[in-house]
Amino acid sequence: MTCGPQLANSPTVIVMVGLPARGKTYISKKLTRYLNWIGVPTKVFNVGEYRREAVKHYSSYDFFRPDNEEAMKVRRQCALAALRDVKLYLTEEAGQIAVFDATNTTRERRGMILNFAKENGFKVFFIESVCNDPNVVATNVMEVKLSSPDYRDCNSTDAMEDFMKRINCYQASYQPLDPDDYDRELSLIKVIDVGRRFLVNRVQDHIQSRIVYYLMNIHVQPRTIYLCRHGESEFNLKGKIGGDSGLSNRGKKFAQALNKFVEEQNLKDLKVWTSQLKRTIQTAEALQLPYEQWKALNEIDAGVCEEMTYEEIRDQHPEEFALRDQDKYYYRYPSGESYQDLVQRLEPVIMELERQENVLVICHQAVMRCLLAYFLDKSADEMPYLKCPLHTVLKLTPVAYGCRVESISLNIEAVNTHRERPEVTLCPNLSSLW
């Protein structure tokens, strides 16, 4: 099996709606990352990027004035160019969802998009971000907009003044979505005041319901997520995969070092999550903090290969050995799991992580790769080869449009369980190493 599930039965265009600095691009990128992670090919089409390509030098907010007819023509052409690329992506490039990231603040513009979708047989789902808190808007402008290429040669005071005038240009003609009357037939969600309140109208299908559920779980509060594997286990020392062995002596030293590290971080209300396997629980016990066990965080099930060394698998199951090398993400161990299965199992963990503030997740190599792939926007092809060494903590800090990662070794020696991507052959290669 070499392809993912077709979760969207016909292609969908997600249309962002809202004034500038309301978090539309943040939502677009985060939602796209999630959809790609669960196996739905998704891409963002940001009309601002098309505009910057068409108009190399931005002068001032005058470009966005509704009475600037020449600029209005350019902006419309940029929107049409983006829609042409949306069509190409959804019809010829195997895309399932396109996110059309622009203000789309008028009924005329939204009507144009609806007609485009109808002509091409695409579904449409609107996401409107409404924010009435001037402090949140000002923070968004300071954190994101002032670093935009539009203001490369501008001081922050002038840039802030210009951008606020740009918002006013849109405000004059802004027609919010009206699910009670004018837009009652549209499928949409309004995200109000950064998730304080939601309004949902006419969800059409499974994928739209998943999008709604995801948007209702994310937040923008500052927080830190720590990911690490359990301390080195007895089976790690023997080169065996799976099983439920306890910690080695070095693994126990790591657990103590992790306790010291957590104390030094001085985090308020840190949540600690483990799997239900002995090696993560023993690691957490050293922290002297409450911890929560998740079955969903258990290591990938290696099926008939559980508790075997790589050499034993190569000798006893040479065909399975070769098949896994050919496509590690979709390959499923006999009576076990694939990385694709693991992603499905971990989706509730991701949803709960998105709801939380500071969390330490003590887990396993394959599980940590899946979680890391979500936060760092890694593809299914890259995921099974991400490096997650023992006795190392990854500190993830959400930033404007992504995640900053710091790798912190706790300087306790451990075996290396990472295996580089092999040279793939079409038949079992008995001389290769797992």
From TrEMBL:
Domain of life, per UniProt, equals Eukaryota
What does the UniProt keyword field contain?
ATP-binding, Hydrolase, Kinase, Multifunctional enzyme, Nucleotide-binding, Phosphoprotein, Transferase
CDD domains membership:
HP_PGM_like
Positions with a binding annotation for substrate: R229, H230, G231, E232, S233, E234, F235, N236, R279
Give the CC-aspect GO terms: cytosol
6-phosphofructo-2-kinase domain span: 3-222
Among the record's GO biological process terms, what is one? fructose 2,6-bisphosphate metabolic process
Name any one GO molecular function.
Answer: 6-phosphofructo-2-kinase activity
Do you know which InterPro entries this protein is assigned to?
A: 6Pfruct_kin, 6Phosfructo_kin, His_Pase_superF_clade-1, His_PPase_superfam, P-loop_NTPase, PG/BPGM_mutase_AS
Active site per UniProt: H230 (tele-phosphohistidine intermediate), E299 (proton donor/acceptor)
The UniProt entry, under Gene3D superfamilies, shows: P-loop containing nucleotide triphosphate hydrolases, Phosphoglycerate mutase-like
User: What family name appears in the similarity comment?
Assistant: In the C-terminal section; belongs to the phosphoglycerate mutase family.
Listed name of the protein: 6-phosphofructo-2-kinase domain-containing protein
Species the sequence originates in: Meleagris gallopavo
